[in-house]
Design a protein that fits this description.
Its main location: membrane. With about 130 residues, this protein is mostly helical. The chain contains 4 helices and no strands. Helix content is about 80%, strand content about 0%.
Length: about 130
Amino acid sequence: MMHVTLIYAGLLGLLFLLLSFWVVKRRAQFKVMIGEGEAPEMRSAIRAHANFAEYVPLTLLLMALCELAGVGALWLHLGGILLLVGRILHAIGIQIPKAPNKPRLFGTLFFWLSLGLFSVLALVQGLSFGG
C-alpha cells in the first residue's frame, strides 16, 4: 500500500479542487464563460489551475513508483512536502502581477526540487534493480 503517496495525492487533490473553484469564482466575478476575457486576474487563475494540472500528475506518479520500489518514507515525505508547499506558493505567487515575486519563485523552486528528487530516486531505484 502506498500510504505516503496517498496522503499527498489527497492533499493535492483538495488543492486542485480549490484552484478549480477559484477559476469558477473568477469566471462569475468577471462574467467570462470561456477563455480569459479582458481580465488579467482571470488569466492568472486559469494558469494556476492549468500549471498544476500540467505538472502534478507526473510528479505524483514518480512518487508512487518510488514508494512501490521501496524508497524510504523520509525521502517520500521530503518530496511530498516540497511538492505541496511549492504548489501552494506558486498558486499564490501567480496571482501577484509584479514579477518576479518570492511566492512564485520559491513555489517553482520547491516544485522543481520535488520533481528532480523523485526523478533521481526513480532512476536510482530502476538501475539498482537491474533496469
